[in-house]
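Quick note —
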Amino acid sequence: MSGFEAAVTGLGLVTPAGVGVQQNWEAVCSGVSRAAVDPALDACPVRISCRVPDFDAGELLGQRRAHRLDPFVQFALVAAKEALADAGLDPRTWDGARVGVVLGTADGGTATMEQQNQTFLAEGARWVSPLLLPMHLPNMLAGQMAMEFGATGPNLVVATACASGATAIGTARDLLAADRCDVVLTGGSEAMLGRVTMAGFAQMGALSRREDEPALASRPFDVDRDGFVAGEGAGVLVLERAADARARGARSHGRIIGYGASADAHHMTKPHPEGHGTEAAVRRALADAGTAVRDIGHVNAHGTSTPLNDRVEGQMLGRVLPGRPLVTSTKGVTGHLLGASGAVEAALTLLTLRNGLVPPTANLTTPDPAVDIEIATEPTPCAAQLAMSNSFGFGGQNTVLVAAAP
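Predicted structure written out below.
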């Protein structure tokens, strides 16, 4: 697929930083964290989260429609509506057979499963909803989007843990390159902030326990980081062949020109300590883009705020990118959106290139001395034409996207 350019003609975002692209961009540039103590997690060992604020699914999707959808699907549909409007595409007029949907999620309808499990335990099997599986199954993320917009082309959900959204975008680009589609709705969505899931993350030691200072809990690459803050949300991108986008006079936010993936084959949760898998994904993405390491002017890092992940990623970037491009992690503001993070961060990377401004890494006060990279701590002008967005997941699944300015 080397040399193939997929134009991004539409963006839609629903995150803890707000509903809508402009609100998200302003929020990440402000560097103000959205983390807070979450009353819904009172029974959990850790009660910090980043939830989507002021999200009324009934108002945005209609009460009847929203009632039959888990939040992970609700978020994605709202983001997709914004992305399609941004792209200037009307689903009522397109050839649905040439429209694909490729989305990523780590876990699917967690909220529905937890609610229905409580119903089962309290009231018995006869009271479990017949909508449980249609609302919970991960594939329904793409299935519901296809139904919403009449997209009858390839319909896929990929799961590579916290790399899922980015893997979906790379897969969507491949479908365009193979002429399987003319348009692909792609990205990722997640809503995993249930008590059982969060207890599991807490028990494995992955979460920050800074409950006395929740707004300072997510602090990527800081020497005092102690874990990530879980969030929720969705990012949806509209991808087209660059030539097709130009032919219809569409505005482009930028282009996805490279995609690299790898597996650490090392541990169920920890990255390889030498970063071999993440380095392989970077080099494959650069080779796919047909560009050299010196041409990368910005990196949106995976940067989760966990001690091991940030150290391994930071050391890998310092080793592989000697030109020292400006690095940021927007998870300091949004928290870690898990399977949606790669899609949201790919969108923010494109906005960085388009706007010529790198958002700050929130809460970074003392950079980890073990990591020798240039990290943005305030909004910083940047004339980069090429950037990378990194996404790494449990199981050692690594995805790197290379984006180019419009």
